[in-house]
Amino acid sequence: MPKFKPHTGTGKRVKVTGKGKLRTEQAGKRHLLEGKSSHVTRRMTGTTAVAKADIPRVKKLLGR
């Protein structure tokens, strides 16, 4: 029986909090920033919770 290997790319992108919630960086802050207002780019700083529909899939990729 093969061993389960967690997805290393997901592990680098998603952080699990102490209570088990999943946090990830806000999307849309990598490129094309000149066209976005400073209000929008400021709002995209920090982390956000993973969408409720994606939690089972992300947990499976992390091996949890």
UniProtKB/TrEMBL annotation:
GO biological process, one term: translation
Keyword Transcription included in the entry's annotation: no
Gene: rpmI
GO cellular component: cytosolic large ribosomal subunit
Cross-referenced InterPro entries: Ribosomal_bL35 (IPR001706), Ribosomal_bL35-like (IPR021137), Ribosomal_bL35_sf (IPR037229)
SUPFAM superfamilies in the cross-refs: L35p-like (SSF143034)
Similarity comment: family membership: Belongs to the bacterial ribosomal protein bL35 family.
Keyword Ribosomal protein belongs to the record: yes
Gene Ontology molecular function, alphabetical: structural constituent of ribosome
Database matches in Gene3D superfamilies: 4.10.410.60
Keywords assigned: Ribonucleoprotein, Ribosomal protein
Official protein name in the record: Large ribosomal subunit protein bL35
Any single Pfam family the record assigns to this protein: Ribosomal_L35p
